[in-house]
Amino acid sequence: MGVSKTTKVTIFLGFLCLNLFQLVLGRFVVEKNSLRVVSPDDIKGTYDSAIGNFGIPQYGGSLPGTVVYPKENRKGCQNFDDSGTSFKSKSGAMPTFVLVDLGDCFFALKIWNAQNAGAAAVLVADNVDKILITMDWPEADGSSAKYLKKAVSAGEMVNVNLDWREAVPHPDDRVEYELWTSSNDECGFKCDMLMKYVKDFKGAAQILEKGGYTQFTPHYITWYCPQAFTVSKQCKSQCINHRRYCAPDPEQDFSTGYEGKDVVVENLRQLCVFKVANETKKPWVWWDYVTDFQIRCPMKEKKYNKECADGVIKSLGLDLRKIEKCMGDPNADEDNPVLKEEQDAQVGKGTRGDVTILPTLVVNNRQYRGKLEKGAVLKAICAGFEETTEPAVCLNDDVETNECLDNNGACWQDKAANITACKDTFRGRVCECPVVDGVQFKGDAYSSCTASGRGRCKLNNGGCWHDTRDGHTYSACVDEGEGKCSCPPGFKGDGVKSCEVSTIDECKEKKACQCSDCSCKNTWGSYECSCSGDLLYIRDHDTCISKRAREVKSAWAAVWAILIGLGMAGGGAYLVYKYRLRSYMDSEIRAIMAQYMPLDSQNEVPNHVNEEHA
C-alpha cells in the first residue's frame, strides 16, 4: 500500500481474541494508542489509532509485525478461507497485520474473518479525514445489555461474581513458568519495566527454583527475514545466520547506535547461559547474569558487547567455552539449533496462543495477564500450586536468599581483610561497596572496591603496597584523598602491586651529608650518613662530633639533672616544714585565747601551755 505524505489516513486498530460480552457504563471515551511505521522511509512516522471496544488490548506492551493488504476481499466482509487466503505466520516469521478498508459490514465481522484466517491484528483504514471513532460490536445495546439495564431500572438487585480461581491451572506441587524477554534496554518504558521486574523478582525466583518448587525457562522472540527482502539493508543490520534470526533495531533508527543483530547475539548468549547453568544443576544463575548484565553493560554507556558480557560470565564462575560453543557461528549460512528451537516454541500449543508480544509471561501453559510486577506475578505463580502445597515464599513476604554464601554472589571480596561487597536482600543479592569502621569503599562492587578517605590505611594498608626492610616499614598508602596509592620517596611503581627502589642517587639528589667529616651511602629507598673515625653524625645539624665530646656533654647533662633534682627536693622539704610550723602556731594561739574567751562551739580545746607546766 502506498500512502503519500499529504494523504491523511484514519486507522482503527482491532486486537484479536473477541470477548463474548462487554458492558460500558459512564462517559464514553475514545481510547487511543500510537501506530508507528518503521519502514519504508516515505511513510515512516507515528500515527494515531483508536483501540477497538472488543478484544484484549495489550496495555503496556507493543506488537511489531508486517502489514498485508489482501488482493481480494479488501473490506474483509467475506470469509477469507473461501478464497484460500491465509494470514497465519510461519514459524519464526513476524506477525501479520491485515489492512482492510472501512465500510459494507460491521467492524466485528471484519476482525472475525481476519482472525480466522490467522491475522495477529487488523488495521481498518479510511482515506477520509475525520474524527477517530471506536470500533464496537454490532447492536452494542442489544439483548444482554438491554435486560441488565431493565433489571437495574426496575430496582432489582443485580449480583455479579467475578471468579479468577481457575484462571491458572494448579494440578500439582510444582509450577512451570516461562518469560519471553529481550536483552534490549533501549526500547523506552517497556524495557525499563521489564528490567525492573527481573531485578525485583530475582530473589523470589531463585528461592523457588533452588527449592525445586518451580521450573523456569527463559525465551527470546526472533523473526526471519522474508525471502523478498533478504538483500535489504534492514535485514542485513537486524539479522544473523544469513537473515534466519532477526530482531528490531533497538533505537528504531538504522543509521545510528546498535543494530538488531546485536540484540539477537546477546539474546542467544543469554539462552546459552541458561543452558550451561542448567547442565550444572544451577539454572537460577540465569537471573544473576541478566541483572548483572543490565547493570554493567548498558547500551547507553556503549558497553553492550561481548567483552563486557564475558566479564559477567567469568565473575559468575560459568564455563565461557561451553557458552561460546552453544552459541555457534552467527555468520554461518545454516540453522542455529538454539534459535530454531525458540522460533518453534513461539507457535502456540494447547491452551497457549502464539507468542508475539514482549514481555510475555506464561504460567502452567496459561498466558499471564496483568501488571508485570513482583507481587502480582508471585501471586499468579503461587496460584499454580495445588492447594496446601504452596511453599513458604507464598505465605511469607520476608524472603531471604543467602546468595552471598555461593561464590560470594559474584561480587568483589577481600579475603585477607574479610571484607565483601555482597549484600543479601529480599530482592536477591546486590553488589555494593561497603562501609567498614567508618571508612567508605568505592568502586563498581563487582571487580573492585577501594577504601577512601581518612583511616583507610588502617584497613589492609588501604589495598596499597607495603614492605619492611632493615627494621623500617615502607607504605604506598596515603591517608588522604580518594584512595590513590603512591610509592614513597625513593621508590617507583604503581603503588598497588609493587614499588621498586629508585635508581636515583639519593645522596646527590637530596644533597645529604655535606659536612667535611661526613660520608653518604645510598640504601634501599633512602640514604645513610656516617662520620670518619670516632665521630658521631648529628642528622638534625648535619655535622659530626667526637664521641668524647658527646660523653662529656652527656656527663654535664647528668650533673645538671642531679642538681636540679636536689633543688626541687629541698624546695619541697621547706614547704612541708613551713606548713607544719604554721599549723602548730595556730593551735597554740587558739588555746591561749580560749582560756580568757571560751568559745560556745568549742567544748574542749587542747592546752599545750598547761600541759607543758604540768
Automatic annotation (TrEMBL):
GO terms for cellular component: Golgi membrane. Residues 1-26 form the signal peptide. GO terms for biological process: protein transport. InterPro entries: EGF, PA_dom_sf, PA_domain, VSR_TRX. It is a single-pass type I membrane protein. The chain crosses the membrane at residues 555-577. It is found in: Endomembrane system; Golgi apparatus membrane. Keywords: Calcium, Disulfide bond, EGF-like domain, Glycoprotein, Golgi apparatus, Membrane, Protein transport, Repeat, Signal, Transmembrane, Transmembrane helix, Transport. CDD domains: EGF_CA (cd00054). Residues 485-499 form the EGF-like domain. Belongs to the VSR (BP-80) family. PANTHER family: PROTEASE-ASSOCIATED DOMAIN-CONTAINING PROTEIN, PROTEASE-ASSOCIATED DOMAIN-CONTAINING PROTEIN 1. This is EGF-like domain-containing protein. It comes from Anisodus acutangulus.
